[in-house]
Structure prediction request, 315 residues.
Amino acid sequence: MLLFGTVGYMVLGLGALDALYQTVTTVGTVGFREQGEADADWKIFTIVLILLGVGIVIYTTTILIETLIEGRLTDHLWRRRMQRDIAALQGHTIVCGCGRLGRTIVMVLENASADVVVVDNDERKLRELNVPFVEGDATDDAVLAAAGLGLAGTLVTGVSTDADNLYVTLSARSARPDLFIVARARTETAEPKLRRAGADRVVNPQFLGGSRIAAMTLQPNVSEFLDVVMHEDNLLFRLQEFDLGPGSPLAGRSLRDAQVRDQTGALVLALRDPTGEFLTNPPPETVLEVGQVLIAIGTPEQLLALDAARASADR
Prediction:
């Protein structure tokens, strides 16, 4: 309005400063004297300027009151704060999909005190989780970027269709070649496609559910014990995995020489080499190598001791 009024009065013959002054006094309804001759053109332009200025003020005030009353401003500030919180995260897990599977994943990760950001189109479901979220289509690169893809440690895609999961996997792998991606597959034919698209792990919930039911039928106590060890906090022993990075004091030493069990009390149940092969119940002569993953069982204190023992020198 200031620009419009100033230019208008300059066209009517005023200098720049006088035109600006006349505009401010007119729009502000102060009513000081005119800075020029108030001919017909002047009066018509002034009337238009007053009506537009007052109209804009009334409209803006109405919108502001409506925003405050309906909570839009509060919601906007809350979303801005949540987006800042997401931007500050590092190494978090992005869960794409807020269905039954996605809600279960978020619940387990929350119980493990892991940072989680959820992506879904349904805001109502997202708000029920009470975790940071981004409302939108997970197949959209901008939505994944808003969820902190650049600094995330893991992405889990469990949206409704195999095609969408494939697309999300391709997008995430293209943006982050180093990202760990877990993809959901609804059909067996989708599993190899998701792996070729870049998924590190592919999970078929139907197959896993059937396998678990069969295992509980054949060995109910063993199955229940594994569930308790993995998910219950009231058991003394836990299962945990540890990466052997460059500079780890354990690399290049055998299990016997490293005295892992004697020094930490934790028991190494298996080793996984970089190719993905498992060595279960490794003998004491097994030499530990950089890139391997140790899977151990022990008390929280014993596992912390093993974590300290395997840590690289620059950690």
User: Anything to note?
Assistant: The chain has three domains: 2-70, 89-203, 236-310.
